[in-house]
């Protein structure tokens, strides 16, 4: 497959919209590893959401904060499924509605309501600043969450005198099958993926928690070159605190996240002459050629210093599992076959091999 991400492997840890995100990467030529870090509790089965909704109907809030469009819509749909749709709509119709961004604002309007205010920056920090500036003492505020607790947000409101009810829409729990995430952890440390994408802070935590004692090795891999791409600064916070350089799009959108990866990975490719060396493939004059791990390891070692003669012992050390010098010869043979017809890899008799640098 051709495309700007041809030759790269990208991991997707999202559960919601996983297929959509994977398809966007695949259309750009990437090989995708799908490893959901979390599973979403179905709204119809979420007793916590039902209880919070009933609390709002019994004791209506003065202000309702909608943090996400899908979360606000999901809340209304779940309430309708429980037979509480009309009561909740009546509560929302009397409350001051505050939107965190354009998607939550759009969901408010699509439901037939009008927002009193929305944050231009699409950040919870701006919402909190506005609420505190207006004064919240004695006010009841319903905060529609999306997957994760907003501990600092809630604590600040309560410290200022507000009565806060948390609406836990789309609560996340560990995935029913953790095997794909375990495999991804091993692939990261083995350098078998070029980028890992995260769409929530909880997904970052889930990966590192599942890795347990191997978590430091995963962080080292991210620092050493595996791209960590996060949809926004909140998602990136844990990795950034660990000293991991994180790629974050200018806007917290899936399309922007994909574009960030699309820009970042090709810029990291190693280029020697007409060769563009990527994660699991090499582009020869723009045409992708797939390479097994051993020939790719030899090519990377040669490309680190093109033109210099590398001994068989050096190249043997670069092989994924090590073997003997015959394994080096086999890897070089397969590498030459993949790069044919041009003679990129030269044999220097009794000394080793080198990669042409021109």
Structural commentary:
The chain has 15 helices and 18 strands. By secondary structure, the protein is α/β, with parallel strands linked by helices. The model has no long low-confidence stretch (mean pLDDT 91). It folds into 3 domains: 9-38 and 175-268, 3-Layer(aba) Sandwich (Rossmann fold), CATH 3.40.50; 43-171, Rossmann fold, CATH 3.40.50; 271-355, Orthogonal Bundle (Arc Repressor Mutant, subunit A). It has helices at 18-27, 47-58, 69-81, 85-94, 102-110, 124-134, 151-159, 179-189, 201-211, 215-224, 233-241, 254-268, 293-304, 312-318, 325-339; strands at 9-12, 31-34, 39-40, 63-66, 96-99, 117-118, 140-146, 163-169, 172-173, 195-198, 227-230, 246-247, 270-272, 275-277, 281-284, 287-290, 345-348, 352-355. β1 (9-12), α1 and β2 (31-34) form a beta-alpha-beta unit. It is 46% helix and 19% strand. The strands form 5 sheets. A 5-stranded parallel sheet has the order 2-1-10-11-12, with helices on both faces.
Summarize, please.
The chain has helices at 18-27, 47-58, 69-81, 85-94, 102-110, 124-134, 151-159, 179-189, 201-211, 215-224, 233-241, 254-268, 293-304, 312-318, 325-339, and strands at 9-12, 31-34, 39-40, 63-66, 96-99, 117-118, 140-146, 163-169, 172-173, 195-198, 227-230, 246-247, 270-272, 275-277, 281-284, 287-290, 345-348, 352-355.
């Amino acid at each position: 497959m051709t495309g700007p991400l041809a030759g790269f492997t990208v991991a997707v840890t999202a559960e919601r919209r996983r297929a959509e995100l994977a398809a966007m990467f695949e259309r750009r030529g990437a090989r995708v590893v799908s490893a959901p870090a979390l599973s979403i509790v179905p709204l119809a089965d979420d007793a916590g959401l039902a209880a919070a909704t009933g609390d709002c109907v019994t004791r209506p809030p003065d202000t309702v904060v909608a943090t996400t469009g899908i979360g606000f819509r999901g809340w209304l749909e779940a309430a309708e499924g429980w037979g509480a749709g009309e009561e909740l709509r009546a509560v929302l119709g009397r409350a001051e509605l505050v939107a965190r961004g354009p998607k939550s604002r759009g969901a408010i309007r699509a439901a037939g309501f009008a927002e009193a205010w929305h944050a231009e920056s699409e950040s919870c920090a701006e919402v909190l600043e506005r609420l505190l500036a207006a004064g919240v003492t004695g006010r009841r505020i319903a905060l529609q969450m999306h997957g994760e607790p907003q501990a600092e947000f809630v604590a600040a409101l309560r410290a200022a005198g507000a009565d806060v009810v948390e609406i836990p829409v789309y609560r996340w729990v560990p995935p029913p099958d953790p095997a794909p995430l375990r495999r991804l952890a091993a692939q990261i440390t083995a350098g078998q993926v070029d980028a890992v994408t995260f769409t929530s802070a909880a997904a970052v935590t889930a990966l590192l928690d599942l890795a347990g004692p191997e978590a430091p090795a995963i962080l080292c891999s991210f620092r050493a070159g595996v791209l960590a791409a996060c949809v926004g600064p909140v998602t990136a916070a844990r990795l950034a605190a660990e000293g991991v350089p994180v790629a974050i799009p200018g806007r917290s959108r899936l399309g922007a996240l994909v574009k960030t990866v699309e820009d970042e990975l090709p810029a990291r490719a190693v280029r020697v002459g007409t060769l563009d060396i990527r994660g699991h493939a090499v582009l020869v004059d723009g045409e992708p050629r797939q390479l097994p791990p051993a020939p790719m390891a030899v090519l990377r070692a040669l490309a680190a210093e093109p033109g210099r003669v590398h001994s068989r012992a050096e190249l043997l050390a670069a092989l994924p599992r090590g073997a003997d010098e015959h394994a080096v010869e086999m890897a070089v043979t397969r590498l030459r076959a993949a790069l044919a017809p041009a003679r990129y890899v030269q044999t220097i008799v009794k000394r080793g091999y080198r990669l042409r640098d021109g």
